[in-house]
Amino acid sequence: MQAMSQPPCCRECVDRVGSFESPLSRMVATGWYDGVTDGVAECARCGTLYAFSMLDAGDGEDLRIFALAPTSGSLAEFDALEPIAAVRPVTVLFGDARQGAKADFVDRCIAHAGPAQFVVASFCLDESIELWRCFPTTPPADWFASLGLSRSSQDA
To answer: Is the pLDDT of residue 133 over 60?
Structure first.
């Protein structure tokens, strides 16, 4: 029987290219459009919490580019606020769920986030990463071109 591998730590991902397991195994999404667009995500290994926001999406919106900005807090604090039936890898806060202590916690984490530290390309942010780089000093006009990625899923 083969042991399950641990995802990499977010700190080990800088300058990695090619599909690899996402270190962001837990997240709370505050935005959703055929997948997460905004929220907070936590590194499974070191516990660093990031506010994330989608910067761009490919033509089919399959491949997405995200900014990750470190913030304070942990998803353990989120879980303790109002226990829910099951802790999921991705929790989505919409409608009535966008109120209360959990929503306030996430809003505080996003509001207190520092500047973007990483730019990440992913088809599914909590499952796999295609590219992980330091956020540039000057954001480019075209994220896909600057990262050497194809905007079209047909080119992949």
So the answer is: yes
Backbone torsions φ then ψ of 114, nearest 5 degrees: -80, -170
Is residue 92 over pLDDT 70?
A: yes
The pTM of the full predicted model, rounded to 2 decimals, is: 0.88
Q: Which of 101, 105, 96, 23 is nearest to 71 (CA)?
A: 105
Q: What are phi and psi of 62, to 5 degrees?
A: -75, -55
At 81, which helix (H) or strand (E)? helix 75-81
| β-bridge pairing 24-32 and 118-122 | unpaired
Strand intervals (E) in the chain: 16-21, 24-32, 36-43, 49-57, 64-71, 90-92, 118-122, 128-134
Residues 15, 140, 90, 70, CA torsion sign? positive
